[in-house]
Amino acid sequence: MTEVKLAVLGGSGAGKSALAVRFLTRRFIGEYASNAECIYTKHLCLDGRQIHLEIYDPCSQPQRGKLCLTDELHWADGFIVVYDISDRASFAFAKALLYRIRESHIGACKKMAESSVFLVGNKQDLCHMREVGWDEGQKLAIDNRCQFCELSAAEHCQEVVAMFTKVLRAITSNFRVKEKRRPSGSKSMAKLINNVFGKRRKSV
Ligand SMILES: Nc1nc2c(ncn2[C@@H]2O[C@H](COP(=O)(O)OP(=O)(O)OP(=O)(O)O)[C@@H](O)[C@H]2O)c(=O)[nH]1
After folding, report:
1. Among 1, 105, 117, residue whose Cα is nearest residue 49
2. To test the ligand 1 pocket, which listed residue (123, 129, 157, 163) has its Cβ within 8 A of the most ligand atoms?
3. What is the ipTM of this complex?
4. Which of 17, 42, 43, 149 has a CB 3.0–4.6 Å from the CB of 32, allowing a cystine?
5. 38-46, strands of its sheet edge to edge
6. pLDDT tens digits for 14-44?
7. Which letter does DSSP use for residue 132 in this model?
8. Is residue 204 a contact partner of residue 25, using CB atoms and an 8 Å limit?
9. d(CA 142, CA 13)
């Protein structure tokens, strides 16, 4: 069983919970409690490999008053950074998040770290209220060497599943590279740090 930890980050109301729940249940639920962070867990099979997935969905970052991501950056194997295409402030927040993630990966194998970060422009169904162009999202992704797509958690079930699947594939293929490099039995610092943090868990 491979353990994968994925953090879904983004500004308040960007659609983090909607995306996670859409992937896990294939359903879109209109409203979610936004005052609590949680970790969803799910077992799934990807390319014949059994995966125990944990998805971290934080409460709204701005309410914390600062961009303090130290725990998340250590905990996660990969990141989905979400913004709302109809909200420019959420795009600026996504930009700051990507910068923090990139900063934290300095020293790690660059190519491996980059492939497990996905920038997502959510709420594509609201394109009549668009404040952030597709090309701006694409450019931000290129600048940060991460994957990019626009979609709608509300309307695009297949696209959401495909996006999560791509991130999971990138993460598991990074694991395979790391397994080859690292002597067996050694534990990563991230795993050790993870044992210290107790986050609320939900099974879906
Ligand atoms: N039109 C539209 N609304 C969406 C979409 N995704 C999410 N929403 C709505 O946007 C609002 C915020 O969605 P959440 O999933 O709670 O966003 P969040 O990023 O988890 O929000 P916080 O927990 O407050 O940080 C809710 O009213 C959702 O129904 C989408 O693709 N299209």
Report:
1. 1
2. 123
3. 0.98
4. 17
5. 147-150, 117-122, 78-84, 2-10, 49-57, 38-46, 201-203
6. 999 999 999 999 999 877 766 677 899 999 9
7. S
8. yes
9. 24
What is the secondary structure of 28-59 as a DSSP string?
Answer: --S----S--EEEEEEEEETTEEEEEEEEEPS
Q: Where are the alpha helices (DSSP H) in the chain?
A: 16-25, 70-75, 88-104, 110-115, 134-143, 157-181, 189-196
Q: Nearest 5 degrees, angle CA 10-CA 33-CA 196?
A: 65
What's the whole-model pTM score? 0.84
Q: Strand 78-84 to strand 2-10: parallel, antiparallel, or no bridges (unpaired)? A: parallel
- What is the predicted pLDDT for the residue at 185? 47
Pocket test for ligand 1, best of 8, 9, 32 (most atoms within 8 A of CB): 32
Question: What one-letter code names the amino acid at 120?
Answer: V
Tokens of 80: 């989905």
